[in-house]
């Protein structure tokens, strides 16, 4: 298919959609919490994060229905959205992996209400789940921000065309 050739909506497939959407660079965040069932920190990586509202302060992110980590996060009183820096690719990959101890070797402290704040994150937002909306193969999570701050200087971890990178 030639560059610029339009694809009718009826002919869209997941691979083509992913390829085109991959042309939009996104930042990468780690959504973390202390799992109320185990009392242990857990988390997942997401590149679908956005500001939703200033009044009240709301953010949003998307989680795949297949996530085995989200059930442990959703029940926590507080989540921490950690905005990852370009130097945190290994943290991202560890949290994105299926199974295992997500926090093995990851240094963290607690937010004011105890959610895991990953050392070296550029900024953090402590949130609670406000709403969930089923959307195709994901759930859109809207979360209320209770506390936030800048944490570490640096450039962001980016996701573009299926790969991680940073600002040069």
UniProtKB/TrEMBL annotation:
Sorted UniProt keywords: Oxidoreductase
InterPro entries associated with the record: Flavin_Rdtase-like_dom, NADH-dep_flavin_reductase, Split_barrel_FMN-bd
Pfam families: Flavin_Reduct (PF01613)
Start and end residues of each Flavin reductase like domain: 21-166
Record's keyword annotation contains Calcium: no
UniProt keyword Ribonucleoprotein present: no
SMART domains linked: Flavin_Reduct
Family label: Belongs to the non-flavoprotein flavin reductase family.
Protein name: Flavin reductase family protein
